[in-house]
Write a structure and sequence with these properties.
single chain; mainly alpha; 0% strand
């Protein structure tokens, strides 16, 4: 487009191409360098809370709670049926766990956007490199055509010698 300016990212990619600097980077390393301690902790909590191990362990905990209060300690249970304390505990866990998981998902979206940006930079560099290769091949073809044309114009007598 006439009069259009390059974006900052495109200018950066072109500068890297001109300097022959590699553009491809590991998105996990780039992203992990930016994480704070709290973000790392939230990701760990989300990883544990979204695992089958957590579900199985929490299922065992719930079954033990119910068995302890409904069967074993019927006379002196610390949380009799309908398990109000257990409901409160589960509600507090959900209130804490949901935002932590959402924070982790938001970071995953940011990581995906970063991966897309890095892929774009690599694609721009590849496109520029391919265009340069096309130019070189076109130049070689023109040079070959001119050499062939010159060789056809030489007299046949020279070829016989």
């Amino acid at each position: 487009m006439p009069g259009s300016r390059l974006s900052e990212r495109d200018a950066r990619v072109i500068a890297r191409v001109a300097k022959r600097v590699h553009i491809a980077r590991n998105v996990n390393q780039v992203f992990d360098q930016r994480l704070t301690m709290g973000q790392r902790l939230a990701d760990q909590v989300a990883a544990v809370g979204g695992s089958w191990g957590f579900i199985a362990g929490f299922g065992v905990f719930l079954a033990a709670w119910v068995a302890l209060n409904a069967v074993l300690l019927v006379e002196h249970s610390f949380d009799p049926y309908p398990f109000v304390s257990l409901n409160l505990l589960l509600s507090m866990l959900a209130v804490l766990q949901a935002p932590i998981i959402m924070m982790s998902q938001n970071r995953q979206e940011a990581k995906d956007r970063l991966a897309a940006a890095l892929d774009y930079e690599v694609n721009v560099k590849a496109e520029i490199s391919i265009a340069q290769l096309h130019d070189k091949i076109d130049h070689l073809q023109e040079r070959l055509q001119s050499l062939l044309s010159e060789s056809k114009m030489k007299p046949v007598v020279e070829a016989a010698e």
